[in-house]
Amino acid sequence: MVERTVSSAIKHRRSIRIFQKTKLDDEKVKGCIYNATLAPNSSNLQLWEFIHVTDSSYLKKLSKACLNQNAASTASQLVVIVVRKDLWNKRAKQNVQFLKDQFKNHPKKHKRIKTGLKYYTKIIPALYFDFLGIFGSIKYIIFQVIGLFTPIIRQVSNSNMRIVAHKSAGLAAQNFMISMAAIDYDTCPMEGFDSLMVKKTLGLPRGAEINMIISCGLRDEKGIYGTQFRIPFDKVYKYI
């Protein structure tokens, strides 16, 4: 099995649009999904889920939901990255329990753990709790006023917190794709899909949101549509 360094895996990774009719090792893909869960994420809330699809009937349904684009219809497997902002309270409580367990094992870290507990029981609810967008608007106004006197987080509306959750999921998706490239498996992140159809197919709750769907397989020689283009580095890099 090919194993690449991080840099070589990043350079090897391309968005593959057509895959070979070759099966992948489920456990190897699962291992790459595990690597996705190690990605950095906002407040360690881990507001994500990863649905690993290998069943042919589900692949067919999801391919239709992905507008039958080649990357979906030829994929051996699919990984659906799901954002679960609606689970913020549950995940915050899990972090609280983790910190309490840490205190039992490391009492010398009491001050740091106490700060963490305050963060998850006070700050996180203040940021994430909302009702029909009403509290989000009120929080936004309050934080803007406070910002007149001191530096403060300003993106606190419900839509802002959705963006935060999706950014974290994007970091996890990148971990997954680089891990796949490292073992010579290929991927293609897709944003062109009917999100409602995907949620119905997978039986996801109303609060779940689809971040992206990643097709997986082994690249066909026709799977790369062209030479990779990037804006010149000196146009996007600024050194201060």
Short overview:
The chain has 240 residues and is α+β, with helices and mostly antiparallel strands.
Write the layout of secondary structure elements.
Elements: H1 6-12, H2 26-36, E1 48-53, H3 56-65, H4 70-73, E2 77-83, H5 88-105, H6 110-128, H7 134-146, H8 158-182, E3 186-190, H9 195-202, E4 209-217, H10 233-236
Antiparallel strand pairs: 1-2, 2-4, 3-4
Q: Could you please describe the fold and organization of this structure?
A:
The chain is of the alpha+beta class and 240 residues long. 50% of the residues lie in helices and 11% in strands. Helix 1 (6-12) crosses helix 8 (158-182). The mean pLDDT is 94.
Order of helices and strands: HHEHHEHHHHEHEH
Q: Classify the helix fraction into a percent range.
A: 40-55%
What would you report as the Rg, rounded to the nearest angstrom? 21 Å
- Secondary structure class reads alpha+beta
Distance between the termini: 42 Å
Uncertain segments of ≥5 residues (pLDDT<50)?
Answer: none
Number of domains: 1
Number of helices: 10
Notable characteristics:
alpha+beta; globular; NADH Oxidase; 4 strands; 50% helix; single chain; 240 residues; four-stranded antiparallel beta sheet
